[in-house]
Amino acid sequence: MAVAKDGKIVIERGYGVRQARQPDAVDTHTQFAIGSTTKAMTAALVGRLVDDKRLAWDDPVVKHLPCKRQGPIKQQWRPLLTAIVSRPTMLTQSPR
Questions:
Q1: HSE-up of residue 38 (Cα within 13 Å, Cβ side)
Q2: What is the percent of the chain with per-residue pLDDT over 90, rounded to a whole number?
Q3: Contact (Cβ atoms closer than 8 angstroms) between residue 18 and residue 26
Q4: Count of CB atoms situated within 10 Å of the CB of 81
Q5: Is residue 70's pLDDT more than 60?
Q6: Which end of the chain is more exposed for a tag (fewer CB within 10 A), N or C?
């Protein structure tokens, strides 16, 4: 855990153990797999942008984010932002 104030870390500490029923303690350099937690964070951030009227849930993703789909592309396949925050869409970052 870290607490920052004015852009600087003021407290930095690890709590608990690395794995259940194992004695190895967590420290400030312990890395954990974040799994699917980024989906909830993304949905919350998109929701804030919707509240600010900067985008809409029914906007096509390509309106805001250049992307391509892996695998065969259907002619009218245009996922909406609701699809991005609610289920897998098989999108990858476009090559630059």
A1: 5
A2: 36
A3: yes
A4: 23
A5: no
A6: C
Q: Write the single-letter amino acid at 57.
A: W
Rounded to whole angstroms, the Cα distance separating 81 from 88 reads: 12
Q: For residue range 41-64, what is the model confidence (pLDDT) as tens digits?
A: 888 999 999 999 999 998 887 787
CB 60 within 8 A of CB 66: no
**d(Cα 27, Cα 63) in Å, to the nearest integer?**
42
The pTM (predicted TM-score) of the whole model is: 0.50
Structure tokens at 46: 């998109």
Length of the chain: 96
Enumerate the domain spans of the chain. Answer: 1-32, 34-96
**Tokens standing for 17?**
């153990």
What is the widest separation between alpha-carbon atoms in the chain? 55
> Token digits for 7?
């852009």
Determine contact, residues 18/30, Cβ cutoff 8 Å.
yes
